[in-house]
Amino acid sequence: MTEYIQVITTTNTEEEARKIQRALVEERAAACVQIIGPISSLYWWEGKIEEAGEWICLAKAKSEDYQRIESLIRENHPYRVPEILAIPVSAGNKDYLAWISEVSGP
Known about the structure:
Layout: E1 4-11, H1 14-26, E2 32-45, E3 48-62, H2 66-76, E4 85-88, H3 94-103
Helix pairs in contact: 1-2
């Protein structure tokens, strides 16, 4: 398992994305959360194709904090089945990775 991850989730409004962003950073579950949007999403949901505008949250964190991140996202997310994906970081700027470790929670 890698030491660092980037966690991705999407929401349907910028305000919801900012709520998740603030929860993750204030609780020190993630060192940084960036918001990108709006984006266009096309997907299957309950047997039909749906289209929606969404906002992406990208959280930079230590792998050991994944469960806290998932829990905080679920607590602050409006979707019944939110996208929560952890992507392992295989390499990165050593100074940036050290910063993630320094500012992330215990």
